[in-house]
Structures are given as structure tokens and as C-alpha cells.
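User: I'm curious whether this sequence folds into something compact or stays loose and floppy. Could you predict its structure so I can see for myself?
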Amino acid sequence: MNYSTLKKTVALSFASLMAVGAVSAQTTSDSTKSATASTPKVFGGRAQYRTWNLGVNAGVLSPFLAIGGTNNYTNWDAELGYGISIRKQLAHSFGLQLDGLRGNVSADNANAAGGAQNGIKSVKTKIQYSVSLSGVVQVGSVDFLRRKNAVNFFVSAGAGLIAYNPVLTNANGTTTDLAKTRPSKDDYGKELVLPIGAGVKFRLSDRVALNLGYTANFIDNDSFDGQKLLPGEALHKDKFSYGYGGLEFSLGSSAKPNLDWVNPLALMYDELNDPTLRQEVEALKGRVTNVEKSVDDLKKDSDGDGVADQFDKCPGTPAGTVVDGSGCPIKFPAPDTTNKVSSMAPMAKGTAYSNIQFEFDSSVLRTSSYPVLDATSADLRANAGKTAWINGYASSEGTAAHNLQLSKDRANSVKTYLVNSGVDAKRLKVKGLGETHPIADNSTEDGRVLNRRVEFKTK
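Assistant: Here's the prediction. I'll summarize afterward.
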């Protein structure tokens, strides 16, 4: 086996060796890890997930592309390339990735007449660094067959800066180092590079993934391979390819799942199939039915005197009789029309002035809060001299300014409900206190749930 073949074998085997090492080092099963991870919500935001990933990779560098194209050499030699990546996953299917790459790119004219052409036998270009920022699209992030993805295909494209220096071996055996002939006297030339790639990643665990990929790198110059454009040649830009394998590590709290492998379709199904949500929907349907029935009762006027039966204290009034607001003839002494609000209010099953809880980053009232609010409304309407202070709070996720506004919105949601139920708005004082005065530990989800609340104070 010659040296060139040996280099190819070593480079192509490197990724496989990394994968075997990662699998051997994995001591915790996926089922154990998933049991400790929290269950995310479909519209809960990126804060529910681990979104930062660190990767290392190695593979083969070549001046030729799989898609073909012009080249100044007849053969290429496999050279080892290696790199590192940092990626921020912004959504289930899209992220931004910063890549760094080093290595050598070699080619020769072994198949040319005399082993050389244009007086050049071979070239070795050293890549001091290639740094680029790319958008990465995971085209397999939504899997209709599996609840949790295990394989993701991806494509990427970006732009960056490459620093390189070619060293030529001439037909007579002498070498030409372009760093010595460069007018700028810089050790390395620097040019714009455009990487376009594709690949596949395999989930080894919630923390580790194996990546296999191929990137075509297009350079905005014709001197990467050491040969400038010759007279009479068509203009072309140099390029090189990088086929690699590597490991990618998910960073962040083990209590959160990795966004790369979350199936949004499965999440949506689970959330819609949640028994608690179904109970709330059924409770809401029942409440709507009761409201509709109450509206029908309010509109019913059996004697046609213009006063609904529910408020008609003199039912059966003859047609044409002039009646007062209670449905009684005006010629009779007006009856006591004082209505005790408590006699008209439905019996509430909640405890008045109990804390009202809210979902994450939401100011929408839960249906489970209605009994408490109805009981609070009944007490306020029965005690006209009582004033209530409605204080809103939030858990510690997000910025302090966002949480302050969220707490105000929660307090106003409670006030709106009470006003719509008949409580005088002047007797309700609203204040948002943000994430201050927590009643539980904000470092745990159970504590944060308790802190997403509205409290009452009365006088």
C-alpha cells in the first residue's frame, strides 16, 4: 500500500473510530435520560430546549468536487482535514452554525504527459484556517413514522474567510512557495469562501450525534491551487471539497430535551390528547351551554309586557298594560324592586379570593379558575363596601420587563372577568409585580408553576 492510499484509509476511518468511541462511552440509556427531561409545549418557545451544540470532525480534503468542473491537475491526493463547529438551533428545522477548518489540499499531474503540465508537477495548499457562518436546514426534522427522530438529513450554505498558501513542485523538481512571490508579503492569501453542503446525522443519545457530511467550498480567486488563469483559458474559480465524519455534543441542562431530535407532530398530538385539556374543553362546553340557556331565559317574556320572565314580578299582565321595570302595572304601588345580588348568583364551588394560576407565558384564564372567580364576584357584589386589590405575578423565566408586563396582563384578565360578572370596576385595584415576591423556588418547574399567579387582598 503506497503512502497516498494509506492517507486515504486513515482519513476515511477516522469518523468511524470516533463513532465507536462515543457509543462505548455512553453509559446512560436514552430511557433514563428522557424520564428526567421535562415535557415541552408546542408553543412554549426555545427556552424549553437545549439549543447549543458543539461539534468536532475530521475527513478528507480534495481539490476536486463530486459535481465535476474544471481543474488544473489530473489527479488528487487524499489529505486529512479537521474542524470544529458551534451551532445555535433556532427552530426544529433551522439553525445557524459557525465552522472552523484546517488541513492541506494536494493534487498532481501524474496522468499528464511526462508527469507535468504547464511546467508544474504537483501542488500542496495549506489551509491555515477557513471560518464560515452557515444556515443549516434539517430536512428530516419532522418524522411521520416515529415519535422521536433518530436520523436527520441536513443541507447548509454560508459564507466566510479562508487563509491559504500553495507550494508548487515544478517539473524540474524545484519548488515555488507563493508566499514568497505574493506582492503583499503575507504568509497566507485571504479570500471569500462559499461553503455549500449536505449530510446526515444519527442520534446516539440525547447528548451525542454522529454527523456524516460533504461540503463543496467555492473560493473567489483562481490561485488556490497555485496556478493563475493562463492566457486563452476560460475564467474559472478554484474550489475544494471536504468529506467528513464527526461527533456533535448538545450543551445545556439535562432537564431539557435537545431541540434537534424533538418531533413537533408528536408534541402536538400529545398536547391535544392531554386529559387535562380535554376536561377543560368539556367544562368550557358545559359553561357555554349554561350561558346560552341563561340568555334564552333572559329573553323569555310570556305575557308580552316587555319585561323578561326572570325579572317580571307581576307575570300574566294583560296585554297593553303599562308596567314599570318590574313588570307590574304602574297604578299599583311599586313593589320593592331591591334585588339581593346574592340570591341571583349561582352557588360557586370555589373558595373566594384563592390564588388564580396561569400557564407558562400566558395571561389567559383557565376554566378551572372560574369557580374561584365566581365565588369572589358573589362576595364582592354582596358586600358593596368591600374593595379588592388584584396583584399579578410571574415566574423568573424571561426578562424582568417582560415578566412585569405579563403580571399586569394576568391581573387585568382577572379584573375583566369580575367586571363582566357585575362587580364595580372602581372597587378593583390592579397591580403587576413581575417576578418579585415568589412563593416557591423558581429553580424548579413545580415552584415556577406556583409563582405564575394572581393574589387577592381585600379591605
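Summary: Residues 3-269 form a domain with the Porin fold (CATH 2.40.160.20). The chain has two domains: 3-269, 345-459.
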